[in-house]
Amino acid sequence: MPTSCKDIVGQTGLHLIQPDPATLPFVTYCDMDSTGEGWTLVAAVHENNIQGKCTVGDKWSSEQEYSSKYLGSKNWENFNVFGDVLDLTWDDYKNVAYHALQASNVMLWHVPNALAISEISDQAYLKYYTNDNVLDQYGGSLRSLYANYAPLNNAGPSRFYELIVSPIEYIKGSKDTIMADIPSDEVENVQPGFIQFRAFDTFGFPQALCPGVKMVTGDSARICVGGNGAAVGDQIRVPSTRRKVTCGDYAGWNGKFKDPGLADVPSSSGRSQKYINSSILIFVK
């Protein structure tokens, strides 16, 4: 039984693997084309309701609404699995390979929602991957990286943290593709060409993943995914700080759009409908 997509000779698509001999084999998606050897899909981040704040379906942030007890999703750090590989662009997804497969690099795809599994590769408008063996430095898996080196705890107003950032190479898209959707008042606060693992907003609330950029300064809740963030918008009040927070898989992406009919146009404070209505697929190799 292959332990990962690297052990498979075949076409891009669904394959049976068993990275952990203590658990049953399972089917996941393998990308066999991007770099000449198999990338194993381990997770997908999907925002099912941008208006909902840590409500049902926000598995990468919290499904418990706002509470200091649930601040920062532990699903980035634990052994939970959830979702169905056939529903990658309809729901959040995480399989055993997220923690059990020893890997070196990470690849992200940005894929429009509501696609069949056979369509996701052709329809992805961004594909990029790390090339510095980042996971080798942090335990060999995303679970280890977050649990042991970048836990998603509130950092407080000081926002002191170790920055884990990896340069990326593009398979589809470019720095311009990514920067075209950054809110205009955050453009100077990010640098494209990277994946950042963990960031904090201006009040110390964590986000797990900054896709395609690293934060120089500014409000990471409007840039990054998977956590709770203090940001302007439709919010929940935090009694202990008298601040308000947005809370959800795509936390602070929901700004006011210049034109709701223009899917590709972001606003000064939010992402475009194109990005909000897409899923981020996470692969490792």
UniProtKB/TrEMBL annotation:
This is Fibrinogen C-terminal domain-containing protein. The keyword Zinc does not apply. PROSITE patterns: FIBRINOGEN_C_2. InterPro entries: Fibrinogen-like_C, Fibrinogen_a/b/g_C_1, Fibrinogen_a/b/g_C_dom. It comes from the Eukaryota. Keywords: Calcium, Disulfide bond, Lectin, Metal-binding. Residues 1-42 form the Fibrinogen C-terminal domain.
